[in-house]
Amino acid sequence: MTRKWAINIKPSIVIAGGGIAGLSTAIALQQQGIQATVYDAQDPNYVPGAGLGIGSNAIQALDKLNLKSAFMQQGRSLSSIQFISAKGRKLNTTNFALLPSNEAQYISILRSELLELLRSKIDDPKNTIKYEKKCIGIEQNQNKAILRFQDGTTAEADAVIGADGIHSSIRSQLFPTSRIRSAGYSCWTCVISQLPDGIDDKYATETWGSAGRIGIVPLSGGRAYWFICINDHMNKMAIKTLDELIEHFKGYHSSVIDVLRASDPGQISYQPIMDLQPMPQFTKGRIALIGDAAHAATPNLGQGACQAIEDAVILAKEIGRQSTVEQALRRFEQLRMKRVNKITRVSRMLGVVAQIENEFITSVRNFVMPMVPASFNNKQLEFIYRVDFND
Ligand SMILES: Cc1cc2nc3c(=O)[nH]c(=O)nc-3n(C[C@H](O)[C@H](O)[C@H](O)COP(=O)(O)OP(=O)(O)OC[C@H]3O[C@@H](n4cnc5c(N)ncnc54)[C@H](O)[C@@H]3O)c2cc1C
User: So what's the pLDDT on residue 288?
Assistant: First the structure.
């Protein structure tokens, strides 16, 4: 059994993965008086692409990390997401101001900017975040958890937090039966330096049609990012260039074509969309998984990064509160399991509806969507934006 720590003896923690989950956790632990070390596989100069939409639940979490005002300054506040048919007909709107949460807001930001904001809050970042440290194994005994790195070195601590993303090496070792699932579609994303004329910069749009889905999300400074999801079997036509994407969406309304034409082909990134089959457990002894390592969801609800930040706040609080690390990690798991797994399930289902390609079913969906009252939509979303930090 682990020792209890006295008020002034804090547990030592190491974090594998310096993405949104890992850095948020390091900040939240700092607030508990714990200086965790973060190990990331990447080169320090690596800049991840594209943007994120961050909902009010995560903004409340960022507030707890004392990052809210810097975040709000850097991001772009959006009033709503409008859902549009391929021909440009408005189908439905999620209006954030109408959501029942007291702080209904939605902010878009570049992923790299959010990571930079998080890094700016880390004390002594040079010693706290170690780059080019790829974790390849983990062990634990009665007293310690030990991370092993590709370069032959190790790091040991009272607890290890696995924040190493959807392809987590820690998860595959801890829970070898965990399963990454294909969503059945792939995603292209790109940041554009200037939103084309005629596209409103106050709200985001998602255009749903039988050839695929395209989201246009304004960012601060007149910029924007777009994402495209196309069902995988359509990729048989092997879309490899921007021109082929433009050709693929040629029947869509003009804003879609305009943002694609405004894009630099060199900035487009591509990835197949996957999620993690909800797991019954994401902690074991002195080791906890958080963020995508524990509960990667498809991006349809725009909640993966948001849940990672929530995880960080709640995990650190439990570590500060419970008398052993095992108890803290177990309590964290109990507090988070139901919520994060529901988000994974709902997000996956939403993707199925959004990616319908059958013309007839698409037209039925597009006929029904405008009739769904805003109050119904808001009710469905309420569970996302209302978050209990177990204060
Ligand atoms: C197309 C797309 C759009 C999205 N849009 C949104 C959105 O609008 N809103 C939202 O909230 N979420 C969104 N998400 C989800 C979001 O990107 C993820 O949920 C979020 O990045 C999870 O953060 P993380 O820190 O857990 O994992 P990651 O961001 O994957 O970070 C993992 C970190 O671990 C490091 N790492 C990996 N392996 C190792 C290893 N072996 N050893 C050490 N370090 C390692 C990586 O270098 C990385 O820094 C989107 C996802 C996709 C794919």
Answer: 98
